Amino acid sequence: xxxxxxxxxxxxxCESKCFYCDFCSSSSSNESTVQAYIESLxxxxxxxxxxxxxxxxxxxxxxxGTPSFIDAKYIKDxxxxxxxxxxxxxxxxxxxxxxPESCTLEKLKTYKEIGINRISVGLQTIHDNILQNxxxxxxxxxxxxxxxxxLKAGFENISVDLMCGLPGxxxxxxxxxxxxxxxxxxxxxxxxxxxxxxxxxxLDFLIENGFVSLPSEDEERDMKHALDxxxxxxxxxxxxxxxxxxxxxxxxxxLKYWNSNYYIGFGCAAASYIxxxxxxxxxxxEEYIQNGSKCNKSEIEQLDLLDLEKEFVILxxxxxxxxxxxxxxxxxxxxxxxMFKEELNKCIKDGLLEENKxxxxxxxxxxxxxNIVWQQFI
Length: 378
Ligand SMILES: C[S@@+](CC[C@H](N)C(=O)[O-])C[C@H]1O[C@@H](n2cnc3c(N)ncnc32)[C@H](O)[C@@H]1O
Ligand code: SF4
Description:
- Helix content is 42%, strand content 22%.
- The chain is α/β, with parallel strands linked by helices.
- It has two domains: 3-258, TIM Barrel, CATH 3.20.20.70; 305-376, Arc Repressor Mutant, subunit A, CATH 1.10.10.
- The strands form three sheets. A nine-stranded mixed β-sheet has the order 7-8-6-5-4-3-2-1-9, sandwiched between helices.
- Helix 1 (31-47) crosses helix 11 and helix 7 packs parallel to helix 9.
- The longest helix has 17 residues, at 31-47.
- The mean pLDDT is 94.
- The structure holds S-adenosylmethionine and iron/sulfur cluster (SF4).
């Protein structure tokens, strides 16, 4: 029986650059660059077909950037090559990230035809003034049209991305966003990311120069708590620090990251984790196009045992169920308490972690102060 593995495919193109974003994406590429990029992507997948044939693929995640920005024929080409050069399981979860302004009914129908069965759509907030503050291309009305199209195309497994702590947002406006998304048909999954302000982004400049301001940490925490309550009352449970799902609709692909399972990434800036080794492709679109398969998996980080143990702890603690103590001792042949006695005791004493028979997990306070917990294990 072959081991299972997930595949990530990066599409680094967007219509425009959101003010907060530092993901690998270009908003100034023309059609010939997109075409050349897809050719390199296909070359990279083919160059790995021997390795791929050793595994069964149970998840594929097409992310970005904005995969829906490019012509759906490119996504079709890539998927055809992937299906032909690997063994994708019948019930594999296959997700594509889409943005409201570019996911037309026609594109969505193509995604459905080629086997994509999960859509992740970025809304962030329903308030146009806040969308404008963060440089989003789509207005709320574009989202409504897009969501309608997603349903019309027949998708049943839909996830929406929101952001918390945005400039101009407050408890009331955030609550209006939550109430709206709870009214959506067939919504199975919600990601809510706390805004991260990265250096040298336009948002950083706007904040530094007083053009926009952010809600306070306390306000943001209140919003998050109200969110937890509303979503729980409506059948969504928090299974990861930023992710809620209806039972059985957790993101199988993202669970691979948090469970320290193996995945292979294709495309520029794509990360892979196989045989205790992390790889990352070049972050330059130009270099990726020029070198094709030759520059893939160029940055290599071989993790030693201690790195693996610490990483397992940090990633597991992101999950509501926390660290599975038996899984830790099976993987590392040592009891977690023998390995991290001091760190665990400190976090438990500070009310950040709790333990039951099988697991160690973040308390509510620990979820609010997760960074303090991570510090113990870095
Ligand atoms: C990288 S985007 C890719 C998908 C798509 N282009 C979009 O914008 O929805 C995926 C999600 O990451 C989140 N994100 C990106 N940059 C972020 C930041 N600086 N802070 C918090 N969340 C961020 C947004 O919620 C976004 O929906
Ligand atoms: S659309 Fe998504 S990937 Fe593109 S700039 Fe905005 S947040 Fe980043």
